[in-house]
Amino acid sequence: MKMGKSMIAMLMASSALVVTPAMAQDAEQSGGIAEIVVTAQKRAENVQDVPIAISAFTSESLQERAVGSVAQLSAITPNVNLDAGTPFSGSTAVLSAYIRGIGSDDFAFNIDPGVGIYLDGVYLARTVGANQDLLDVERVEILKGPQGTLFGRNTIGGSISIVTADPGSAFKAKGDVTVGSYNLFQARGSVTVPITDGLSSALTFGIKSRDGFLKRLRYPDQRANNAPPFTAFSAAGYDSANKEGANDNWNLRGKLRWDNGGAVRATFSGDYSKDKGTSANKLIGTAEFVPGNFAGTTNLPGTAFDPTGTTGFLFAGLYNFCIGSTGAEIAARNAQALCGVSGTQFNPQFQLASVASANVDGNPANDRLPWDGRYLIANKDRSYASGNSYSNLESWGLSGIVDFDLADNIALKSITAYRELHWNAGLDADGSPLNFLQLSFTMNQWQFSQEFQLLGNAFDEKLRYVLGAYYFKEAGDLHDYVTFGEGLVQVDGPNQLSTKNYAFFGQIDYRPIDLIGITIGGRYTNERKRFEGGQQELNGFNYKLFGCADANGNIFPGGPFPLAPIPCQVGLSYPDPTNPVRVYTPGVNRKKFSDFSPKVGVQLHPSEDVMLYGSWSKGYKTGGWTTRLTNPQGNVAPDFNEEKATTWEAGIKSTLLDRHLQLNAALFSTKYRDIQLNIQIGTSPTIANAGDARIRGFELEMVAAPVDGLTINGAIGYIDAQYTSVSAGAAAVGGANPFQAGTLVGESLPKTPKWKVNLSPRYEATLGNGGSVVLLADWTYTSSAWNDTQRTLLLKRVSTDIVNASISYREPDGHWSLTAGGTNLTDKRFLTSGGSNIAAGAMFGTYNRPREWYVRFGFEF
Hints:
Elements lengths: L4 H10 L7 E2 L3 E2 L3 E2 L3 E2 L6 E2 L7 E5 H6 L15 E5 L10 E5 L2 E3 L10 E5 L2 E3 L12 E8 L3 H4 L6 E7 L7 E9 L3 E13 L2 E12 L3 E3 L26 E2 L2 E13 L4 E12 L5 E6 L4 E2 L19 E2 L1 H10 L2 H6 L49 E2 L6 E18 L2 E19 L8 E22 L4 E22 L4 E25 L2 E18 L2 E2 L3 H5 L22 H4 L17 E19 L2 E12 L2 E2 L13 E2 L2 E14 L4 E21 L2 E21 L5 E17 L1 H6 L21 E12 L5 E11 L17 E11 L5 E8 L7 E7 L4 E6 L4 E9 L1
Keywords: Cell outer membrane, Ion transport, Iron, Iron transport, Membrane, Receptor, Signal, TonB box, Transmembrane, Transmembrane beta strand, Transport
Main location: membrane
Protein name: Iron complex outermembrane recepter protein
């Protein structure tokens, strides 16, 4: 579907030019639109009174639309892209979040998110586990644009605040059971139990299991049996699955609330979750014929290295050359060591026999499958993968929120929290029976945070203020394991990281007269990071490439370098004398960051129900180090600095026709500097501050309740996000080629579709017995977008029209309900994520889920 100007004009007119950030679908207050209270400015306010572009969703609107995770909010939020999973993460619990073109599509510990995720006011520092199950939530608030003043670091694109329900003062129990496609079974429940006057508790649980939708097939060639099993290589784990895209999760949350009407209120909570959901990955393209530097016909003397990169191979071509060439042909290119034993004498447990001449030695019993396009399958839900496929995520947290009323108009809030996560995941990205791109990871992380907020008002509430202090500390490790080209490169990468952060912030809102309001705020942040990388390449590929090894897998670090009178380890810049295959610089690396993020805003209130606002704000995202390396860097640990955004925004919020119509709009322009681009250098996804961008756009949102029982939500989002500069190195690496359109000035940013349009009518009819029937539909159009920085052609996300619908019956007393629904009813399939590794010869991706149905029984008493 392509949107012409007439189509856009018709949609804008039909939605009265706007759409609200609030998904207020309950017809209340004499048929009017219900008010949604948010805490976007650290105090409870009607969403219509907050001068920020916010999309807010109530628990009922989420349940009726079968939205059970953060990523599923993407379809109904303009200029927001939320995907369950990042390239090669292998897990749907990892969140790729972009708001107005700014975000992060990675899970690595050294890379921070560009959109802040908050759970009951507690910042979740990792993208792993950020795709939270929306279990017993009261509401979700999506704040767009830099939120550095009140929310802090890494909210450069915006923030997503998940607020769970607090226990009330009366006994209450509710829950639901859902069955559906792919053997879906989900059960959720929550019970509130008063303990004494002023003290109440709540316990919430959720379980979900579902079969995968991508089926693995056995490759129909006996030569597949001659490839070494994936268990022969170093990995984080060796679990596998016959189907990918499955879920097996459970969650538990407990809350204790004290509020006896006095000056002190406190809420203590704890949550635990175990997530075994895997992403469905498949091979979508191969690149086996690209020329490269390995085993050329014009090698440097004594090596198998072709400096021209024109007569040799990359890893896929090298593997095919090794298995299909005679000993004499291999020797003619000085490739005996490259085609020889995989591994080295330093890791004998992972050494594998040579594949040299396997297909030309006259013995068909040991023939090997080549790497080429034979493993591509047109069916989006089929794959020839045979390697590891699993994800085990365990996370938990404790928090305490205490409110003190210091006076009638002054309150102090304390938020104390501790969280941990432990993650182990693996995937077979090559989609074949070979070990061409096998990845696995472990991550362990803990974090502690303490926040104080002083909230007050003065001058008959004409002046309101928030002052605060924040402390954050986290530490942990990430260990990468990657196998390329049947062991030609074997990455084993342990990394240790820690961060300390403190900040002071404040915001003043002053409304001297009814017509005018003024906002002034700012946040000062100081941050210190420590990192130690231990990345190794266990095959010693560079030693074998430069003539410092033999065909038996032995490498000679102290041997003579053929190009200079120095030892091989020195000549190849391997940095650790105690570990010849370590590529990362030994020692602890340190970085310091400081930032001041200001905000200035003006509001005009021509009437009680209309507000016009304008604001100028800044935000930043912290820097770090590149960790995914396969080549030695000498004594330099490659790092990158923070990125920054400055945004101008103007908008209007209005509630009209006796609360039967809400019309909201926002225009914005952002200058985005020092973007941390993820650029593929050889086999390594490398981070560098390699570009600047200009981002412009608008959002129009509407909620209408024209007649009793009917509510119509609508949204239009437009965004034009283009690079204004790209560094010379990034442009060279990310330039146009037969597989990619390139990272170029004037081209669009990844994960940023120009258009998103949503229309969601809901009709509730009261029956003669007092019960009701609810009919609900969601239609979302999203224009095409690039899934990666280099704009890989095969990874481009096509434009889509997604339709979801449901019908519900609610019994007269409201104690139970029955819902039947379907998602992606048109079965539109598109790539949500993926990666291209031209050096390894593989391009892979993850498709969205196919059409599915569900039936849900809910109860409440």
